[in-house]
Structures are given as C-alpha cells and as structure tokens.
Amino acid sequence: MEQVWWDDPGARGTPFFDLAVAYLACRRGDLDRAGQWKEMNWDRYETGSARIDVLAVDACLARRRGGSRDLAWVLARLADARGAPLLSEGLDLLAAELARPLLESRAPEPGEALRRLLAPYLRAA
To answer: Domain of life of the organism in this record (predicted)?
Structure first.
C-alpha cells in the first residue's frame, strides 16, 4: 500500500493514509523518504488537525539528522500547538524522541513543556 501512495498521486490526500506513510518512513529510519514526504505534504497539513503529526515527523527528522536547534524549534512549536497527534504512532514517536536528552543542550530541556502537555495522553495510551 505504501508503494501505491508513492506511485499514484491520486491515492494521496487522505490524512490517515498520508500520515501512515510518513510514520512508516520514520519507523524504518528512512530519512530521505520522510523528508520527501514532508516536502510534499507540509502545505496540505500545515494547519488543521494533522499538523501535530507533521510536526512529529519533523521532530523525528531533526533528531535523527542531529539538528538540536531544529529539534528544539520543533518541540517548542509542538508545545505551542497544544494538542496531540491524530495517530497513536505520532504519540509513540514523540514519546521516543522526548525520552532522549539533547546532547548539545545546556539550557533547560526544550521538550519539557511538550512532555508535560503530552503526559496525560501518554498515560492513557
């Protein structure tokens, strides 16, 4: 099904299907595919209920590419957005990313506000 999404532009546009493809790329560690997905879909989901999921994909990319400044920026945007991902995979991804401290950061952990915000969702999950 993932290949259908990449091969057939007509298959795109359903948030759950689109997000499943992005999360699969993140789970596999395929940063090229996840980055390509983000470039293709950022405008579509920049606002609305799926934007938290797009930011979760962005956090995954920033963390795995080693961009602590980028990750801090994404985590701050996620905390400001005050919501949870649509898909549980997004919550799992964020929990995994937040569980690992930033090596280069001497400032307070940038994910702390987001961690507090997501704590009830993580407990419920």
So the answer is: Bacteria
